[in-house]
Hints:
The complex is a heterodimer. Chain A is of the alpha+beta class. Chain A is built from two helices and eleven strands; from the N terminus they run H-E-E-E-E-E-E-E-H-E-E-E-E. Chain B has a four-stranded antiparallel beta sheet, with no helix packed on it. Strand 11 (185-190) of chain A pairs antiparallel with strand 1 of chain B.
Amino acid sequence: MVRKSNMKSTNQFIHVKILAYILNFTTCIMNKIIGTAVLILNVYLFGLNAQNTLKPMLGEDDKYGFIDSISGKWVIAPKYLTAGYFSKNGLAFVCKTKNKCGCIDINGKVKIPFRYIYDINYLGRLKQGWRDPRVVPVFNDSGLLVVNRLVKQKKHWYYGYGLIDSEGKEVLPLKYYFREETPNYYIVNGEEESNTDWVL
Amino acid sequence: MGIVGLNGKFLLPQKYNGYEKLNTDTFILRYSKGREMVFQFMNLNNQIVKDGEFEQVEFVKEQQYIIAKQNNSVWPYVCANIR
Lengths: 200, 83
């Protein structure tokens, strides 16, 4: 009788233990799932935050880098002649020299090679101060960026402007001159056209 | 000159040689037609917004009116109506 009772309690103990194992296992799995979700969310948020909080800043050597505007620490060391703000796609336009401009990501990694020119005379840049980050181009709402390069046509060289996407692909060929930029459109001239302004 | 949208596509073709903005999406545009220069009122959807081609267009009275000449007739337009 005593033995039967002991066996019964031993069985119950085993059942409880198995249940505890199952619960523990389920909790572990749930924790891992939640942990992974939190991690993904953090990376996502960190990415967005970094893009929003990184600001171009002039360093001691008269070069631009990027600081975290919350911590005030340098995130991308100051080594650029000029630098623009990060766009929604996480890229910023920076120049090593006036003839070597491209795009970097929030880690400072080059995403679009330094093959573009920074034209200091472009649309009032000189007036505001051509190195001012506010006059450095950013990607527009369609994810395109105005860039220019020296191009040759019929034996003469000129600055050809166009639009590239975040992969560096030319969406509008670099052969125009941008007369005006607005939040909704660009007024462009062809290379062969004169730049004479016209008003009624 | 032409007008390019943010997506890199031409909203208005590259056939004009002068422009005047009337508002954010309406323009007076000038282009060559044979030996003559003509004017058109266009919007950013590449639509003519006023009566075809004009031989001459002028702002008057502090840009409140436009005098537009078409087939030897002169038409005064109130800018606000075009805008």
